[in-house]
Structures are given as C-alpha cells and as structure tokens.
Amino acid sequence: MKPHNPNRVPTDVYLSFVSSLSGNRMTLLAGVIVHVATFLAVAAKTQSLVYVLLSAAALLVFCIRMVIFRRFDRVDKAKLSRVGIERWERILVAAAACTTAILGIGSGYAIFVVRDSFAELACISVTMATMVSVVGRNYGSRLAVDLQTFSCCLPMIVCSLMALDFYRGILSIFLIPFWLTTRAMANGVREFLYENVIAHRQISLIADRFDTALNNMPHGLVMVDPSNRIQVINRKACELLKIGDPDRLKDRDLGAVLRYGARYSFMDASQPELILRQLTQVAEEGLSRTLIHFPESLSLEFSAKRRADGGAVLIFEDVSSRVKAEQKILHMVRFDALTGLPNREYFGHLVQEYLDRHPKRRGPLGFMVLDIDEFKHVNDMRGHITGDHLLCAIAARVKVEAGNAIVGRLMGDQFVIFFPHTKSSEALDAEIRRVHTAIQGNYDVDEVTFLVSLSAGYAVLESNAFAMEEWSIKADLALFESKSRLRGGITGFEHEMDGRYIEQQKLKADLREAVAADALSVAFQPMFKADGTRIECAEALARWVHPEKGAIPPDVFIGLAEEMGIISDITRFILFKACIECVTWPDHIAISVNLSARDLRDNDILAVVSEALSTSGLKASRLHLEITESCLIDEPAAVRAILAELRSHGITIAIDDFGTGFSSLSYLDTLPLDIVKIDRSFVRNIAEDTRRLKLLRGTVNLARELGLKIVIEGVETLEQLALLNKHRSADLVQGYVFSAPVPSKEIGILSQALSRRAAQRRRSKVA
C-alpha cells in the first residue's frame, strides 16, 4: 500500500507523519551550529561578507522554526481537520526548505564566485550531509523531501554549469540521480512506516476485539504452554475459579495457581488435581470432557484440546443450572411427585443396589405390599385434595416406622416396603407386623380425623432367592388373601398361594375363551307380585358351567371378568340373549339386565342396548336395566346422563342392592330411577328383629314418597313374605319363596300356571 496521495492516508496517520517534521529538535540545533561554523570558517578563509550574511540567515531561520514548532505544539491535535494538517505541513516544510536553500546558495556561490577549494569542499560537504539527513527527519512528507532536495541541489547544478568547467558540469549533473535516490529513500521509509502503522493498527484492533470477545465469552478459557504455564486466561475463568486478576496470572504455573485457589477460595484440595488430570488425559488422548462439582452448588464442565506446539487450551463453563435441572428431572423420574417416595422402577433399583452392596450377607429379607382400605370413599366424600393430603400423611408415617427399610409407592393407594437382612425369619416377621400395626390408626388431615386401615401382604425369603417380580407376585398374593379375609389384616405368603394363583390364572384364561365362544348361559329369576299371583318381570343371571370344574359361582367369575376387563362382553351377551328370550314370553312380563360400572364409563352402552332391542324386536318398555351404587363412584354426572338417555327411550331404570353403600339415599333423588330393589340384607331376620323391620319399612316409605316402585330381593320364607304383605312393603318380590332362577322356557310355563290358578279362583268365587 503506497500513500501517494495524503488524502488516502488515514487522518490520524497523516497527522503523525506531519508531527514528525517537528521532532528531533536537538539535531536541528547541532545542524545549525555546524552550518554557522562552516560559513564563518569560509568567510574567514575567503574574506567574503556573503558567508557572514548566510550565517546570520541560518540562525534567523532556525529561530523562526523553533517559534513555529512551539505554536504547533500548542495546537489541539484532536480537533485538527485534514485541511488544517495540510496547512501546518506546508508551513513546516517551507521553514525547512529555507534552511536547505541557504546551504544550496552557499555551495553554489563557492563554486561559481569564490572558486576556493576549501570553500567548495566545506560548503558542499555540509550540504550533502544535510541532504542525507532529510531522509531521517522528513520522511513523513513527500513535499518536504522534494522541496529540500531541490533547494539544495538546484543552486549547485546551476552554478556549476555557469562556471563553464566541463568536469564540474559533469559532477553537477551527477547530483540529479543523487537527488532522485534521496527522494526514493525517503519515500521508501515513509511507505514502510505507513504499512507498519496500518498493520499495527489492524493488529491492535484485532487484539482489542479478541480481548473483548475473550473477556465477554460465557466460558472460562485458559491457554497453557507445554510446561503448563499460563499464556492466556480470560476474566470469566478467574471469576469461576476465583483465582484473582488475569493480568497477574500470565506466565504462572497453572497447578500453582489452582492450588492457591484451593487454599484461599472455595475449592477443596482435590479439585485442582482433577483439573490438571483433565489436561493430562488430553495429552494421552483420553477423555476430553469432565464435570466437576464445587462447593456452593457450582458445577463446571471442563473440556481441553492439545495444541500443535505441545500446549493446551482448557475451556470450562458454569453448568450449575443445567445440572440442577437434570437433577430435578431425575428426581421427577425416580420419585413419586405427590409423596416424594421412590416410584416402582426406582424402588426396584434401590433394592438391587442394596443387594449389590451386600453380596455376601446372609439372612432373610422381607417384602411387604400395603393397600389403603376403601381409600376411594375419601376422595368421594372429601375431594381429591384431601385425599392427596391423607396419602402424604400415610406415606410420611410409613417412612418413619419403616426405619432403615426401603419404602416406595407402587400406584394409587398402594405402598411397598423392602426390609433388609435380619438374623432370623421370626424377628423379621415380627418387625413387619410391628410396622403394619404402627401405620394404622387415626390421621388428622385438613381438620378431619380419618381412621385408616391398611391391608398388607408380605413375603419372607432368603436373599439368594430374591427376584423382584417373583417377590412382588408373592406379596400381591398375600395381600389378596388379606383383603378377602379381613379389612386391615396382614397375611404372610404361603406356598399354597402359588397354586391358588396359578389356578386362578387358568380359570381366567378359560373364562376368556368361554366369553369369546358365547359358552355362558342365562338363567332367569322371576319377580312376582307381592301376593304371588303374577310374574311381572324376570332378572337375567349369567351362568358358567366349566367343562372340568362344573358350575362356577357367579360371584367368582363375574369378579374375574371385571378384573380382566371383559365384563362388558358378558353384559352384551346377556343383554342380547335376554331380549331374544323375553320376546317369547307373555307380553306383560319384562326382562331385567344388570349393568356394570365399566358398562357405564362411556356412551357405547347406548348403541349396545339399541342394537339388542332392534335385533330382538323387544319393546323398550319391557326392558329393565339395573345398576349398583359402584357404578356411580367414578363419574356420577356422566352416568346420570347415560341413564337419562336410556330412560328417555322408555327403558326402566332400577337401582340394585339398595342400602348397602355409604350414600345410597342421596341417589334416590338425583338419579333418573323407576325402581328400587332393596337388598336381601334388609329382609334377613325381619321376623325376629323388629328394628330391622322398621328400617325396611322406613326405606320403603321414603322410596314410595319419591314415586318409586319397590322390589324386595332375597325373600326366602313364607313368614318373611307374610310380614311384607302385612305392611304392604313390596310391589314385587324376588326370591326362593316363589322361585329359584330357571331356564327361559320355565318363565312361560310358570306364568301360564299362575294364570290358570287365578282363573280357577275366579270361577270358584262365582260358583
């Protein structure tokens, strides 16, 4: 880059070049002394007054230049425009040219007028020396170089030619290449300095940008040489490691700096070695990224890269927020959000971790599953928020009472406890039962006291026989036994439970095949008028005759079907079969079909009922649908809407087993009901227990006040029937006192027999 035109040179660089014209003032003083002394010596030798005048002129020009320099020094350089700089350049160059012109005139005068060898030699020598110094003093201005060399050489060339001396003329002509060479040298120096100034400016700019980027980057950076001495370290690195000012750490040993930080800041003694080991691993081409946890919840992730010269670059960042987020996510994955206990998966991990830590320990281990009895009613009566608070209170007590055992939450209202090694099975059995007893009792939650019981099942086995899934099954089998025997009880696993479990699983498989093959059958239990003179309706009851085990009780296989999720398939089968059979009966007899809770979870039952009626041709008024209180627990509003839709098509709705739940009385007013079927528990012992009879009559009167029809279930004796008729407590009676469940064809036969009997009674009355 050649600054031929000053306008192409940056203003600040141009100013520095012009300022150089007023520099090195001591050389000017030395020069003027030499000039004056030379001229005075020539004047003494030649007796020429001209050289005395030239001496005085040189002194005068020197003084003027000093005044100009002082004025230039006082100028505010920052406010100078390019035009102002050019004006000062012309002033400084003109003053300098006056000095060189005096020297050129003195040399020319010696050549042309004086013609004294000493005068010529002295004047020309001083002039040539001054011309050479122009390169060193005035390189910053092309104008200064040109004007000064021209003012020096031109008088000597002209006077040499005017002397009409051939040899002097030749020498004078040689001054022209000397002039050009001097000019070229000055230009070369100026261009060289200009390029270096520009390069320095660019390097400084890059260095400033690098420094800004380095000290504002979110990562800490340390660059070390092959001896692990710090070459570059940014401000973020010092802040993260708390090791002082970056400017004081250059050329320090990194290990020493880190150990100093460990001594006087928050690091412990082991952490500097971890960081240095990171660099070593890079050198050995090992792991190049590591996470180090510091006190004060600070986590730094380090990565390093080896440089070509053997040094390394260590980069690290604060990942504390990320680590905390990962820990939170990990906690959410591992622990139950409500109770804070380990979930099923993490519980299994903790158990396996314990076994791995104690591979050689011997002795029995315990595994217990807990189930809160009737917890669903807490949610129904008090709401899910109170239910959640109760769960948390139970979980906290379980954790405290379990001591060093591992506690987890399986699902819903179930907890699991793993008991570590003990000396004997008897001691472990006693500890398990102690924990079970301790966690039962009263819980004060949301200003309400709940009496809580938990059914429990447990298994005690040797540690070498442990298998999580197997133990879980054994504990579940024991829990099932507890719940079937006594609420709030506890049962230990026994080997015969495995056989019962296998038998139950086989029975489930056989039931699934039977349902898929429509291998179930239907029996019908008639409902009579209270005086027994007429059949008004018949309840369709599912029956299953196992090919090997014979008849399976309905309460067994219906419960299995609900557990397996195939109860709706049975409902569909019974509904279609019942509607088809009812069409063959006398028109006054209706058919009643039970619906399960699963049937009423969505609107699919509406389509099933409609299809059954249309397929069989049965009138909707002859179809009764029975529901139990359990159907209403999950989503009462949705169930109410489905029942209202069914009732709007003329279907009769009955509530079955009335009086066995917690809040059945409230359903009489809120549900679209037509019939109340009072449970057999109300009828039992009414002949002996007058209070039970009063309770039955009160329930009947309440239902009749609401315009509902009454069906009494489970009437088995004539004495019970007589009491019901005496107090007019039933519209219809269903029970063994009249008939057990019978095949479909028996319904028509019974109805015809009752009709003939009624006709005979009428004829006998007439006779």
Automatic annotation (TrEMBL):
Check the record and name the NCBIfam families matching this protein. Answer: GGDEF
Q: State the UniProt keywords alphabetically.
A: Membrane, Transmembrane, Transmembrane helix
**What's the source species' lineage?**
Bacteria, Pseudomonadati, Pseudomonadota, Alphaproteobacteria, Hyphomicrobiales
* Name of protein: EAL domain-containing protein
Q: Which residues form the EAL domain?
A: 504-755
**Where are the membrane-spanning stretches?**
26-44, 50-70, 91-112, 118-140, 152-180
Domain (GGDEF): give its ranges: 363-495
